[in-house]
Write a structure and sequence with these properties.
This protein is an alpha/beta fold and 211 residues long. The chain is built from eight helices and eight strands, in the order βαβαβαβααβαβαβαβ.
């Protein structure tokens, strides 16, 4: 993507639990700490909306914004992109991802003529989004996806206790595809957060990790 991202990013799931004022403060604090990559999703409750307020307060140019949608069809994804732009209070989203493509059937759907990927490619051509990514918990789905040339990034779980993505990450790096790590503390199972993050970012194939 040629995006200059902080190696530690901001994972957008928990922010939905706080007030608007607290959300703005969190985004401002992230900015002060040098975090410039924010990952959220249509499925994360009020996350996009609250992050949008924080970004507006800090300045849009301070962040690389990533969001995602689980919608699999063309028309549904067109609506999702419009909603994300409105809630994030921006006219362009840096990275829009296909969210949790779990099965071969879902993968075929999003890649089809009437699939969600077509809507994302059209949005990119119009300047509404800059890059397209894909996320999954199934390495085999992403192994197929990265060979198509359609995706700038992948997102997959990785931690000291969940290392099945290492070969996938290595291949992504060879193809110049960004690697976003989710679940860096195994959903809270790992208590030493700092050590887990240190383990992850020492892998040379990782672009950014989003606790």
């Amino acid at each position: 993507t040629n995006f200059e991202v902080s190696v530690i990013g901001f994972g957008g799931i928990p922010i939905q639990k706080v007030s608007k004022e607290e959300a703005i403060n969190l985004i401002m604090t992230a900015n002060k700490q040098g975090i410039n990559f924010i990952d959220t999703a249509r499925g994360y409750g009020k996350s996009e909306e609250l992050i949008g307020y924080g970004i507006e307060k800090c300045g849009r140019d301070k962040f690389i914004i990533a969001t995602k949608s689980p919608v699999r069809d063309y028309y549904g994804m067109k609506k999702e992109i419009e909603t994300s732009l409105k809630l994030l209070r921006t006219d362009c989203i840096d990275l829009y991802q296909l969210h949790l493509v779990r099965t071969e059937e879902q993968y075929k759907m999003v890649m089809s003529e009437n699939g969600a990927l077509r809507a994302l490619k059209e949005a990119k051509a119009k300047g509404l989004i800059k890059e397209i990514g894909i996320t999954s918990h199934d390495a085999s789905v992403l192994e197929k996806a990265i060979e198509t040339g359609e995706f700038a990034t992948i997102q997959f779980p990785y931690s000291p206790v969940e290392r099945q993505g290492e070969k996938l990450f290595e291949r992504a790096k060879e193809l110049d595809i960004g690697v976003i790590v989710m679940k860096p503390v195994a959903g809270g199972a790992i208590k030493n957060v700092s050590l887990s993050l240190r383990f992850i970012i020492e892998n040379p194939n990782i672009s950014v990790v989003i606790p």
